[in-house]
Design a protein that fits this description.
The protein is mainly alpha-helical. The protein contains 7 helices and 4 strands; from the N terminus they run βααβαβαβααα. It has a two-stranded parallel ribbon with strand order 1-2. Strands 3-4 form a two-stranded parallel sheet.
Length: 197
Amino acid sequence: MRKQKIKASFFFTGRFYRSITFAPLIRRLKKEGHYLGAHSDEHLLYCDWTKRDSLLVTKQQFKTDLLKNYTELARYGISKGKAAFFLPPYEWYNDSIAAWTREMGLQLINFTPGTLSTADYTTPDMKNYRNSEAIYNSIIHYENSKSSGMNGFILLVHIGTDPKRTDKLYDRLPELIRHLSAKGYHFQTVDQLLRID
């Protein structure tokens, strides 16, 4: 991204922001002008996978956990107002979570469905494993098959994955960026893309 002069949006947990190991990376991302946002403190699962309307957290647990994430962001000089977009853990939520997020003065966002990019964390031993070639091809297919292409698309790619996954999708980002740039796409951070006036 640096070579292509592209800014991205990174949503980390409070646990990630607290890590001494990742502090240099976070400082560098901030210095380079990337958007840094919240992804909960402890990556809680908010609602049941099969019964989405069934909450697994209370409103107080949700708020306490999310505020801890913003406490960690503040350590890097990032206020809640500068990081008002919130990506829920597991990218899984329901109407209660969306309402509680709004009550906190935040905007819940999520990735745009339609590609396999969210499977880039999977490992070969998992039933839902997708290799990077399949994921990459799903992105290209989506772009080619939709009348609007990828205009306004939020593509989710994990910054790190399990060592068992030796086939890292993020290694294909330069190729994907070149491909989409050649087709006239411009890349934006979520705060640029989803301006709230």
